[in-house]
Amino acid sequence: MKNKVGALIVAGGISSRMNDFKPLMKIGRYSMIEHIIMNFKSIGIHEVVIVIGYRSYDIEDALRNYDVTFVYNKDYLITKMFDSVCLGLKELSNKVDMIFITPSDCPFIQAFTLKRMIEEMQKNGFYYIKPSYLGENGHPILISSILSNIILNHDGSKGLKGAIAKVTENYKEIKFADPGIVMDADNEIDLINLVKYNEIRKLPSIDLCNIIQEYFQVSKEIKEHSEKVKDVALNIYEELEKKGVILNRDLIVSACLLHDIAKGKKYHDRVGAEWMMEMGFFEVSQIIAEHMNLEEFSEKITEKDVVYLADKLVYNNSISTLEQMFSYKEELYKDNEEVLNIIKRRKEHAMNLYLSIYEDIENL
Predict the structure, then answer these.
(1) Pairing of strands 3-11, 96-103
(2) DSSP assignment of 253-308
(3) How far apart are CA 191 and CA 182, in angstroms?
(4) Quick check: 9 and 50 in contact, CB under 8 A?
(5) Is residue 87 over pLDDT 70?
(6) What's the per-residue H, E or C state across 195-233?
(7) 6, 15, 68, 245: least surrounded by Cβ within 10 Å?
(8) How far apart are CA 197 and CA 182, in angstroms?
(9) pLDDT, tens only, 121-179
(10) What pLDDT score does 123 carry?
(11) CB of 236 within 8 A of CB of 357?
């Protein structure tokens, strides 16, 4: 029985443009090739083939605890990357239905990107899918095993690009909100950028939040609401700062801008949280998951509490009071006891938060 999806990592070259061996260069705790393997494993891809050549023993030793298959390119000094791709495809094409192909220096692809590419191919039967970020194509590509024969029979001109160019229909280029798609390590400047990106990649910048909003086709009204929630949250943040409570300002901003990213979908809090988790934004995901219902009320105020309260103080894109906000909802659902109980619990949490911050019930 076939494993549905496989991954091919090409790591046979000598990294001639770098003063080090790219696959084993560390970014944070892990080498670049380890990051790539973990990305694929995280979404359930177990059939991972790595084509090695130069410093093959070093790679095998470094990855001895990973469940991967090695294919050796004995002619790595005189062959090109395309030849290594072909060796990997010969190993994989009869075992899986679709194959990710990537070089060994693209370590930070989001799980969200990989999953959506697989879903698109499963749904539409494309021969290949190519991802892009801000108009620039990148890695990895995903090919159907059907395409393997075309690639293996290619004469090598223009490498893998030349082989894929023969496919003039039944393919797709997909835009993503994933900077990792276009980040590799061709030179030392690229490596510096990867190191910097690794330090910030778990918390999206304002610019990336805007790109994410565009990707998910967030409406103008929701964008305006999210912006207003952000402004209110920052006022709360500043009030807390005066009291000596120091929180992560950037996390609050990102969570406010993205808290309604899935608005319009059923259980949009859960859906949005799942999307952000798959994109690698764990802390933002946790806040989004509870921006409608706090699981518990704690005396220690967190970023999650700030976003929750700010959201309750904004109706559409206008600042409201808690009493106005909840009175409206209580009237709206007065004949639905189950919903009314939820509203009352939310109101209690919001009131307690407000009082713990401002200690002035007259402003409610």
Answers:
(1) parallel
(2) HHHHHHTTTTTTSTTHHHHHHHHHHHTT-HHHHHHHHTSSS-S---SS--HHHHHH
(3) 13
(4) yes
(5) yes
(6) HHHHHHCCCCCHHHHHHHHHHCCCCHHHHHHHHHHHHHH
(7) 245
(8) 12
(9) 999 999 999 999 999 999 999 999 999 999 999 998 999 999 999 898 999 999 999 99
(10) 94
(11) yes
Amino acid symbol at 304: K
Q: State the Cα–Cα distance between residues 76 and 83, nearest whole angstrom.
A: 9
Return all residues near 355 (Cβ < 8 A) that are at least 6 apart. 361
- With tokens 């808290």, the residue in question is 259
Is residue 353 within 8 Å of residue 305, measured between CB atoms?
Answer: yes
Pairwise CA distance, residues 122 & 315, whole Å: 41
CA distance 206 to 284: 13
Tokens representing 40 are: 């694929």
Q: Which of 260, 282, 280, 281 shows the shortest CA–CA distance to 271?
A: 260
Q: Which residue's entry shows tokens 């797709």? A: 172
Look up residue 190 and give its two tokens: 């690229």
Structure tokens at 359: 């200690």
Closest to 94 measured CA to CA, from 51, 149, 50, 139: 149
Could you tell me the two tokens for 65? 């605890």
**Three-class SS state of 31:** strand
Q: What is the pLDDT of residues 298-351, one digit of tens each?
A: 778 999 999 999 999 998 888 888 877 777 777 777 778 877 887 778 877 888
The Cα-based distances of 162 to 79, 126, 156, 237 in angstroms read: 16, 18, 7, 54
Amino acid at 197: Y
Q: Decide: 153 and 159 in contact? Cβ < 8 Å.
A: no
pLDDT in tens, 242-251: 889 999 999 9
Kind of pairing between the strands at 128-133 and 26-27: unpaired
249: enclosing H helix or E strand? helix 249-258
